[in-house]
Amino acid sequence: MKRKIVLFVFFLILSACAPTATQTADVQTTEEISILTETPEPQISEVVTGFQENTKYFELPEWVKISPYGGLLVLPYRDDIDRPTRAIFVNPENGETFIINLEKEFYYYYWRDNDHIIFFHGLSCNETPEFISELNVYTGVLQKYLAKDHPEFILNCYFDPDDEIVRLNREYSELAVEFVDPSNGNVSLLTDPNDGITDISIEQSYNAYVAVVQFKGDFEFSEHWQPEYGNQISIIDIRTKRIVLQYYEEQGILSEVSFIDYSNLVYMRENTPCLIMILSLVKNCIHKIPNQFPNSTIILSKNSELDFERIRFLYFSEEQGGYCFYHILSGGLGCPTDSFEVFENQIVTNYSFSSGGHYLLLEYDSKGCPRPWCDNFDNPKLALIDLHDGELFEIGFANDFFINPFLMPLQPNPWRPWL
User: Fold this and answer.
1) Paired strand residues for 57
2) Does residue 337 sit in helix, strand or coil?
3) Which tens digits make up the pLDDT trace of 290-314?
4) What are residue 253's DSSP bridge partners?
5) CA 81 – CA 105 distance, rounded (Å)
């Protein structure tokens, strides 16, 4: 792969009675994570076959066609500083790779379902795509369409507006959370836009709850892209449209919040993760994590779809940073990155989980840290870890792949959907 340093930046559109918080002690047990250290060199191959007007056919390898759902990685792949015209498939079981050439530049892509990938051609994420290509990974057929002629609904670069039932309205001076009724499109307020509380960010749990990070008092958003902190978190039941839990913290609350499942979530209070169990009205702050990584910044990771018992996070200091798990029930703490030499004196700057939680894609660098905490990078690389079999495969330099380095997890989501 050619090594070139390029940074492409997309901008993404930026979550009353309070029960007594209960704090319990951490369980002081350790959960071991067994990881091997083999890093076989991937083999790259490419097959280009015939055209038939708006249709192109690729002879794809069997592991692309029949890979287990959630077990196929697809990344945009380029030869120079321009937008990519090629996509690379990666087999996470053995690191094997396969490249297809779309011949036309694309600026965004996503999995429409288990078997189809949509590629956007023409303009940029600020516009509606002029035309698209749809690849069926099972048959190898690439069909080209004018975007307006595609028979299925097409997402934009950021989100599906049809699924957006909770949103942050930035037209209010304090910002406010709105509920959009999916049955009729009617909009109602979930928070008061004139109560002296600014709603900084939201995180939705299915259609049950929404967590809102807020700031009581005068608040000004930074003109620069940097982490935002509030001093209060409120949990709203979307079904009743009422606040069911609310915690005020003297220490800063990071705007990023992660739901473990539909009724349990984690937020960061400075460098201490706090678990809120909504149904039992209990908050438990986990001191074992900052004790294990003193003088480090802790950043929550989005949870895997099929693993509801672990808190996932990145940690980093000036010289080292990794990716770790904390088991909620046992108190076990383990970092798979600690077992590989490639991560020594490196900082994990971003990640992406496969849909089933079996594989972990990591971006890492010898300096810098996860964005937006800093942006002074050297030459970040990508590696793939099989968390079940304990293998690692180095993929290459991250700048060879057209991914958005400023969003966590890595975007666009490169993994085949689970269902």
Assistant:
1) 141
2) helix
3) 999 999 999 999 876 667 788 999 9
4) 230, 269
5) 12
